[in-house]
Structures are given as C-alpha cells and as structure tokens.
Amino acid sequence: MRRKNVVILGSTGSIGVNTLKIIERFPERFKVLGLTAYNNSRLLAKQVRRFVPKYVAVQDKGRAFLETAVDPRKTRILNVAEDLEVLVAFKSVDIVVIAMRGSAALGPFLSAVRAGKTVAPANKEALVVAGDLIMREAKRYAARIIPIDSEQSAIFQCLQGQNRGTLKKVYLTASGGPLLNVPVKDFAKISVDQILAHPRWRMGAKITVDSAMLMNKGFEVIEAMRLFQLNVEDIQVLIHPEAIIHSMVEFQDASVIAQLGVPDMRLPIQYALTYPDRWPSGLPSVNFFQLGSLTFQRPDVKKFPALGLAVEAGRRGGTVPAVLNAADEEAVEAFLKHKITFPDIYRVVEKVLRKHTMHKSPDISRILRADQWAREEARRIMDA
Can you give the pLDDT of all 384 residues of the chain as single tens digits? Predict the structure, then answer.
C-alpha cells in the first residue's frame, strides 16, 4: 500500500501536534510531506528534524532559526504568508489537514479543493466565511472534505450509509464551557485566565474564548449548514457537559444515531486520515459504568446571546457570516490583550452586524471586502 502524503497547515497547534502523533503511529501508511507554522519556530524545527518533510513554511522572521534545523538537500523552506496555496496543490499531496486558525485558511482551503485533494479541516472559519463557495468548488473538482472538528466529524460519521432524504434533525452538542454555571452578572469580572480554563478540551486561546460565549457553537451551526446542506431549522444545539456524545442525527422514523467517544481530538483526526477505515487508536474506550449518566440542557440564549447572533447570521447568509467572523476575531483578540471585557466581545460584534449591508450571493472578492470592512469597523468601535 502506497503511503499517503500529508500536508499539515498549522502543525505546531494542538490539532497539528495530535495529527503528527497519529502519523507517528502509522509510519508505514503516512508520510509528512509539508509542515507550516506562523509563530512557534522552535517546535516547528523539532518537527522538521523528526519527520523530515519535503516542504516547510514559516514566516520570514523565523526562517533564519529554521535553517539551522533543515537539511536543504531534503527540505525546502517556503514562506507561510505566500506559498500555502501552491503547497497544498502540489500533485504529490494526498491529504491536507487545515489546523491553522482564522479566516487566513480560506485561500489554501480553496486551493486544496480546486486541486481535488482530500481536505481535513479543523478550521471552521473558512467554512463560516465562504462555505457555500467551498462546497460548490469541492463538488466541481471532486474534492473530498472530511471534517476534523469533533461535532462535524460526529455528524459525518452518523450520516455514513444513510439516505440523506430521510434526515430529520441534527443535534449539535456543546459542553457548555467554563461559564455554564457562572451567573451572568459576574461575566464583566471574568479574567482572561478564567475564560481559558475550558473544563473538557485543550484548545487555542481564540476558540476557547468563543466556546465560553457559545459563539463557537454558533459558528458550528453555520459550518454544519454548509458541510451537510442543512437549514438553520434542521439543527438543534444541546448542552451536554459530559462531552461524550459528540453529535446526533435524527431520521424521519424517529430513530437517532449518535457518535460517542472519549473527549480526545485524536479520534476525529484519525478518522479523517483513515476514512473510510477505522484503525486502532490506542485511546481508552468510554467507561459507561464509571460515567453513570449523560445529561442535556437547552442553551440559554439570554445568558449567551452570541449563539443566537451566530444562528441568525447563518439564517441570513450572504456576507453576514463573514462579517460575524471578522468582527469576532478582532474583538476576541482585543479581549485576550485585556483591552475590552468579556461581555464587550458580543457588544462589538453585534454593533458591526447592525451596520453591515448584506450582499446575498457574494463572490470571493466581495467576501474578502466584507471581511476587511468588518475588521476596520470593529476596531473603530473599540477605539471610540
């Protein structure tokens, strides 16, 4: 069996690191062809020494350091800001894992799709910003998209072998995050460190903040709409603190199929890499006797209004999700830098959306213009 060549965009983040752990378990099945990172040059250098990829991409300021770890006869250094779209489209690439965060993933995502690759996205922003366009191009170029995001992977798995015409509803689960039981009156006093202490998942700072306000779950609603051609009304968010059921699908006969597993991102990552096969993961099984019970709650949209804001953005479509994402990225960054309070994130994003004039069927240039406008408007509001 020929080894599959894998490119990992964002190899030094948690998704990238876990992807490499899986590849390390199956060296006879996978070959690391390319690694990229923006900031963590030291870890990237260690990864290059361990996996010896043919290509590595880094920012200019990290190039000199990386050159000390790279054998130029074996590994070519590229520019992470300019060369990703070319890298993912190389003929030798089989699988592109998109582990980089933010809307910057849009360009390489589209490039990989147009090159007919198997794309395994952990990045939800690209699908939020331009999901309709990405899915159209995937169909046109016969690309395969297998989501890594645990909830989207669960839906993808539950739909395997099913007649899509019999689908009734998708149940998208959420752990509830660190603020599930914190009174809303205390939100203004919540520190960055408290927000970053997620009870179930170890994630990057931005997605952890979004999870705390349930904005991330709203993004996942939009993502599911795009990936599986659903309407907002087809999706129900459930608070499930145990994070054992990663999502469920209900069919017209009232049967519900759920995907369960320990809360470890290596499970959906490995499934995306090995699809349609299932290989031993080395991870523990769910201990149902120790678990005891599984609980569910309706999300409190008054306490977490960002969820409703995102769902409405998904319902409106067009350029609205792109504006939502861009304003949120700017506001969350400001919060992480202690420039605004946690409740201010929602207020900034909501104000930007109110000022936006939607375009219903945008092309990529109009989406990018809407993104840039939203960022500038969010910064203007925060600086006022």
Answer: 789 999 999 999 999 999 999 999 999 999 999 999 988 999 999 999 999 999 999 998 888 889 888 888 999 999 999 999 999 999 999 999 999 988 889 999 999 999 999 999 998 999 999 999 999 999 999 999 999 999 999 999 999 999 999 999 999 999 998 899 999 999 999 999 889 876 666 677 898 999 999 999 999 999 999 999 999 999 999 999 999 999 999 999 999 999 999 999 999 999 999 999 999 999 999 999 998 899 999 999 999 999 999 999 999 999 999 999 999 999 999 999 999 999 999 999 999 999 999 999 999 999 999 999 999 999 999 998
Task: Confirm if 105 and 126 have CB atoms less than 8 A apart.
Answer: yes
Q: In the CATH scheme, what architecture does the domain 4-145 have?
A: 3-Layer(aba) Sandwich (3.40)
Please state, in angstroms and rounded to a whole number, the distance separating the CA atoms of residues 208 and 338: 15
Q: At what angle do helices 320-336 and 205-212 cross, to 10 degrees?
A: 110
The answer to whether the peptide bond before residue 276 is cis (omega within 30 degrees of 0) is yes
- Domain 317-384, what architecture? Orthogonal Bundle (1.10)
Within the chain, where are the H helices? 14-25, 41-51, 60-67, 84-87, 106-114, 125-140, 150-158, 192-195, 205-212, 215-228, 266-274, 288-291, 305-316, 320-336, 342-355, 364-383
Question: Cα dist. 156→159, 217, 233, 266, 380 in Å?
Answer: 5, 17, 18, 16, 40
Locate the domains of the chain by residue range: 4-145, 149-263+281-309, 317-384
Q: Tokens at residue 368, please?
A: 């990018």
Characterise 142 by phi-psi region: left (phi > 0), alpha (psi -120 to 50), beta (else): left
**Which residues, 6 or more positions from 189, have their beta carbon under 8 angstroms from its beta carbon?**
none
Taking the C-alpha atoms of residue 320 and residue 242, their distance in angstroms, rounded to an integer, is 33
Alpha carbons 205 and 211: distance in angstroms, whole number: 10
pTM confidence score: 0.93
Alpha-carbon gap, residue 310 to 48, rounded angstroms:
39
